[in-house]
Amino acid sequence: MAVHQSLILGKNPRGTIGKQITFASWKGIGVAKVRPIPSNPKTSAQTTQRNNFKALVTEWHHEDRTATDKEAWDLRASRQSRPMSGFNLFMSLYRSAFYNGKTLDYFRGCSVSLSGTTVSYSGKGSYDGDITINVYTKSGALIKSESDTVSGGTFSGTVTVPSGTTEVFVIFKYDVTNHFGESGTYYDKA
Length: 190
Hints:
This protein is α+β, with helices and mostly antiparallel strands. It has two domains: about 1-35, no CATH class; about 45-190, Immunoglobulin-like, CATH 2.60.40. Helix content is about 25%, strand content about 40%. It is built from three helices and 13 strands. It has a four-stranded antiparallel beta sheet with strand order 1-4-3-2, with no helix packed on it. It has a four-stranded antiparallel beta sheet with strand order 9-8-11-13. It has a three-stranded antiparallel beta sheet with strand order 6-7-10, with no helix packed on it. α1 packs antiparallel against α3. The chain is elongated. The chain starts with a strand and ends with a strand. The mean pLDDT is about 90.
């Protein structure tokens, strides 16, 4: 790093010239330094993480992931203590599960409907296995938790909730060892 004073460049130039020299300010003094070249070691772990990230972005844009599914993720994200978008919450949960060695499974094309004391639900799952349907109040209190099974890539059923329930928030989760899959929060009101 060299201190510079140049009539041509001025007192405190900033930026890079010819991808070789970078001008900056350090404690109010103009300095020039060799532009650092970032390393990209392309390790197998780094490549695996990049491929996983790419696969998750592709999954988010999957043709079977409806606008309702994305709205459900946005709703779930809005109910978190740290505000973020549905996409960011999806990526965060799934990247964490991947990092912990879980097989990733997905919910798509889901719907929820409340009529009287019956919550009807349906959707597609990427893994044929057991799932949990969690029904919550607006404040986040669990009303009911039921089990079901994804068979042939689809699931559907009903959950009975207490009378007087006027709105429900539903999250689907895979309930299988070493698998991870969760949905956004689906909402409906009577």
